[in-house]
Design brief:
It is a single chain. The chain is α+β, with helices and mostly antiparallel strands. About 35% of the residues lie in helices and about 40% in strands. α2 packs antiparallel against α3.
Length: about 100
Amino acid sequence: MQIKIKNLTFKCIIGILPFEREKKQSVIINCKIKYNYKKNNFIDYSKITQDIENIMKKREFELIEDAILELRRHIFDTYKIKKLKLSICKPHIINNCEVSVSK
């Protein structure tokens, strides 16, 4: 089975520039999770979205690369999954584009 979480959007402190450390900015998270589904083995996707948002808000990462690695570690350690693709986008950091990192 595959779960897709698209455009999970919230504000948090993320970035290394001085203004990024002072004011929350929007981030957009997308992920695809592959796992073995069995009758009593399902993944609560609402819990995953809560985990992602809580980690991002609590940790106030400087680099989105560090954020993505921490989120991947948490998801793999917490849920029985086979494969994970994750991206973090900062849609308003540059006026004429969206910037994202994926792994």
